[in-house]
Amino acid sequence: MKTTLYLVRHGQSEARARNIVQGVGLDIPLTPEGVIQAARAAGVLAGYKFDKIFSSTAVRARDTAAIIRRRHPGVPYEEIAELNERSKGVTEGMTKDDFAAKYPEIIEQWNKEEDARPPGGENFEDVANRVVPTIERHVAGDAKGSSFLYVIHGNVIRAILGHILDVPHRLRPRIEQDYCAFNVARYDHERARWSVECVNRV
Fold first, then answer.
1. Annotated binding residue 60
2. What is the pLDDT of residues 31-90, one digit of tens each?
3. What are the residue ranges of helices labelled H in 26-123?
4. CB within 10 Å: which end of the chain, N or C, has fewer?
5. Which is nearest to 11 in space by CA: 29, 24, 23?
6. Cα-Cα-Cα-Cα dihedral of 167, 173, 179, 184, to 10°?
7. How many CB atoms are located within 10 Å of the residue 43 CB?
8. CB contact at 8 A, 128 and 157
9. What's the pLDDT tens digit per position in 99-111?
């Protein structure tokens, strides 16, 4: 018996289009291109069956999920704050150029693949500590053998896949996640073992 997780990143947001740092505290909607990306993802996922759909509470994830859910009427849906994007702390709302100018030491640490936190924000270990227990509760619940769809964020997906594949926190940014890409992971309950079927499919 296997439980299957489909992990989908949201579409492009207005913040990315404007080169603004966003995370959990900056709630920005999709761009028109992001809506198109979500519609394409919905078309790809239309042939899949899901027992439940989850999203974060961010508008960019909720709106992406809403477009996908039109193809899956009647499937239960839940928004979960623990699945929100990595917090960038006080830097949220800055342009990326201003961020680099004000906090060059953080950029330098990231370039060295150190798991640094922006001031007041989270690093990848923090994200994993928040996200992974939620996923594990779903997998260990009564609905073993189910298929769950998560419409979430790039760094949240990296935290989940990094945990499954035992990738060190500092190296999880290497896991590419394009807008509206989807990833598939399965948990084999008999063998107590994860497998990853695909990563960053667009």
1. yes
2. 999 999 999 999 999 999 999 999 999 999 999 999 999 999 999 999 999 999 999 999
3. 32-45, 59-69, 96-102, 104-111
4. N
5. 29
6. 0
7. 12
8. no
9. 999 999 999 999 9
Place of tokens 């500092």: 170
DSSP 103: -
Catalytic positions, written as ranges: 10, 85
Residue written as token pair 């961010």? 58
Q: Which amino acid is at 150?
A: Y
Work out the number of other CB atoms within 10 angstroms of the CB of residue 24: 20
| Prediction pTM value | 0.97
Q: What angle do CA 8, 10, 16 make, to 5 degrees?
A: 140
96 annotated to a ligand binding site: yes
- As given in the structure block, the two tokens for residue 178 are 């394009």
Burial of 39 (C-beta count, 10 Å sphere; 0-12/13-18/19+): middle
Total length of the chain? 202
